Amino acid sequence: MNAPAHEHIDPAAKKPSRTFGIDLGTTYSCISYVDDSGRPTIVKNAIGEDTTPSVVFFETEDNVIVGRIAKNSQKTNPELVASLVKRDMGEKTTLSFHGTEHSPESISALILREIAAAATAELGEPVRDVVITVPAYFGVSQREATRHAGEIAGLNVVDVVPEPVAAALHYDAAGGGDRTILVYDLGGGTFDTTVIRLVGNDISVVCTDGDHHLGGADWDDRISSWLLERFLAENPGSAAGEHEDFLQSLATSAEEMKKALSRRTGQKQPMRFASEVATAELTRERFEQLTADLLERTFGITARTIETAKVKGVDHFDDVLLVGGSARLPAVAAGLRSRFGFEPRLHDPDLAVAKGAALFALIQTVKTAFPEGDDAAPATVAKIADQLGIDPEEVRRLSEKKVVTVAPRAFGIKALRQGSLTDSYVDHLIKANDILPATPPVQRYVTAHPDQTSILIEVWEQAGAVASADLEHNNLIGEGRIANLPPLSKGSPIDVTFSMAQNGTLRVHAVETTTGEDLDIELLIGGLNRDEVAQARDAVARYSVGG
Ligand code: ADP
Ligand code: MG
Questions:
Q1: Domain count, the chain
Q2: Are strands 345-346 and 319-323 parallel, antiparallel or unpaired?
Q3: Cα(163) to centroid of ligand 1, in Å?
Q4: Residue 18 domain-assigned?
Q5: pLDDT tens, residue by residue, 500-509
Q6: 363 alpha carbon – ligand 1 mean position (Å)
Q7: Which of 2, 95, 203, 218 is the most exposed place for a label (fewest CB within 10 A)?
């Protein structure tokens, strides 16, 4: 930590300012800050709603609309609307609107910019410093892409925090002693389960698992397909199914029906295409049959999480928290009850993550204001509390919190199997759920060929849900070459050091031991590089925002 001692703080430069927590969701996003009384508060958006659809409508070449109107525009202008981009975070992929290429980062940046602007307008103070939440299983490139999205939006991303940790912080703020909890988060496009232990002031992630292609949108798709089937049954030979706008209207109706079915046991839906009409009635029971396999997938992952937790010494849960809008599906709680014997409770499902992010943001602000090793001296606490305008007791309490996170997946080096020159595998140095910061012991490898003058080091990240040494179950995330070496004898040692910081940033260092030649491996962040971030920032800044 490089914060100067507080006596030397230049009051103008170092005055802690408010840091906001942003839940950048796959389908809905939300922003929060900690108010004077120390409680997290949601800032409503321009149309008075707590959450904003994470949808961008590229209305014209230079005007974008974010949120509700954009979501509704999917019906009429599907080719100009971007949604569910979080699913592609960290991937080198682009979408084109009005001839301009957009990355998942730049589209996310437009969402962040709109949310920050709306909060600025609402509060009359600029939103600059933010903490953004990420799914716990986001790997290195996805976390980095999220940071980049914030930078492109012109924000200062103080940190990223795993969503379940944020949810647990919010839960913890409600009080209640030492506990182990299971967080089941079923959102719009992602699912994850995380075991968290709250002991004294420590909040630690025991293990986490998830699927970032599983969420409420999949439930919507099942209803959409069902509606189309019903429509075609009533209107044989209809061309409705080939019309994007009709399909979009079904998608919108599907989400509304789904939400209605969380309260009611049946829901009617009229449909119209040109002169063709049909009305379909979906019962909750039928809906649950249509989506049973999706729910089952969440339970499979939950079971796997419980198993992993067991290996780590956790054999019972004091609470099962349901977060994410889709956790409102009655089948979720019912299934967790019957399958696992849990007594789950809904915990502020739409807002818990943003509120927890705001608490985490405050903890980070308070921590950086304290020089390392300095205890929360009452005078310092009072000063920070005064500067932030927050109750000193809350600042003291939060300054003592410690969040311990774990590695989201396994990371390692590509190596050749002993005695083979072709059979390579990934040797994982950091394993999923290792406590962060992780600094595994130096690992020694040896050269495979005689007279090697260069050594290629490749860093790979676990791709599948379960760690495997097979290359096909891992993704290359970085590489580097130690070159210009004198011809080495076969079996020359190379020492590789991995270290992963608490926020999930990975550093890899390799050294050829006879010459001392070494290498810091620059991780190829799947998405954008520095220049591209700067370019995207300019490009995004040029858009005016309507809506
Ligand atoms: P994310 O964080 O992935 O953006 P959220 O936690 O905001 O997602 O949840 C959004 C999802 O929750 C959407 O798929 C939405 O349709 C669904 N949802 C919201 N309310 C309900 C409800 N009452 N019943 C079922 N699903 C709901
Ligand atoms: Mg979410």
A1: 2
A2: parallel
A3: 15
A4: yes
A5: 988 778 889 9
A6: 28
A7: 2
Atom of ligand 1 nearest to the CA of 54: 4
Q: Which residue has the higher pLDDT, 68 or 139?
A: 68
Probe ligand 1: pick from 29, 74, 259, max atoms within 8 Å of CB?
259
* Residue that has been written with the tokens 């796997």 in this structure: 304
Closest ligand 1 atom to residue 261 Cα is 24
Q: What is the CATH number of the domain that holds 105?
A: 3.30.420.40
> How far lies 22's CA from each of 30, 162, 287, 443, in Å?
6, 12, 33, 38
Residue of minimum CA distance from atom 13 in ligand 1: 188
Half-sphere exposure of 236 (CA within 13 A, CB side): 0
CATH of the domain at 521: 2.60.34.10
Q: Residue 180 corresponds to which amino acid?
A: T
Q: In angstroms, rounded to a whole number, what is the distance separating the alpha carbons of residues 209 and 368? A: 30
**How many angstroms is it from 217 CA to the middle of ligand 1?**
8
Q: What angle do CA 479, 482, 485 make, to 5 degrees?
A: 160
Residue 76 shares a structural domain with residue 137: yes
375 with 453, same domain: the answer is no
With a Cβ cut-off of 6 Å, ligand 1 is lined by 25-28, 51, 187-190, 215-217, 255, 258-259, 262, 324-326, 328-329, 350
Q: Are residues 370 and 515 in the same domain?
A: no
Residues, Cβ < 5 Å to ion ligand 2: 25, 187
Structural domain harbouring 495 = 411-501+505-527
Q: Which amino acid belongs to residue 395?
A: V
Are 434 and 394 found together in one domain? no
Do 515 and 431 share a structural domain? yes
What's the pLDDT score for residue 27? 94
Residues 511 and 385 in one domain: no
Q: Alpha-carbon distance 190 to 136, whole Å?
A: 11
Asked, for residue 306, whether it belongs to a domain, the answer is no
Residue with CA nearest ligand 1 atom 11: 188
Same structural domain for residues 23 and 164? yes
Judge if 513 and 418 occupy the same domain: yes
Look at residue 234 and give its three-state secondary structure. Answer: helix
Return the ligand 1 atom nearest residue 185 CA: 6
Query: pTM (2 decimals)?
Result: 0.86
Residues 46-56 as b or e (16 or more Cβ within 10 Å = b): beeeebbbbbb
The residue whose CA is least distant from atom 22 of ligand 1 is 259
The answer as to whether 105 is a domain residue is: yes
What's the distance, Cα to Cα, between the start and end of the chain in Å? 41
Ligand 1 pocket check: which of 326, 329, 355 to mutate, most ligand atoms within 8 Å of Cβ? 326
Residue owning the nearest CA to atom 12 of ligand 1: 325
pLDDT digits 0-9 by tens, 299-357: 999 999 999 999 999 999 999 999 999 999 999 999 999 999 999 999 899 999 999 99
Contact present, 131 and 357 (Cβ < 8 Å): yes
Q: Is pLDDT at 69 greater than 80 in this prediction?
A: yes
Tell me, yes or no, whether 276 lies in a domain: no
Percent above pLDDT 90 for the chain: 62
pLDDT in tens, 263-288: 999 999 999 999 999 999 999 999 99
- Report CA(68)–ligand 2 centroid distance (Å): 17
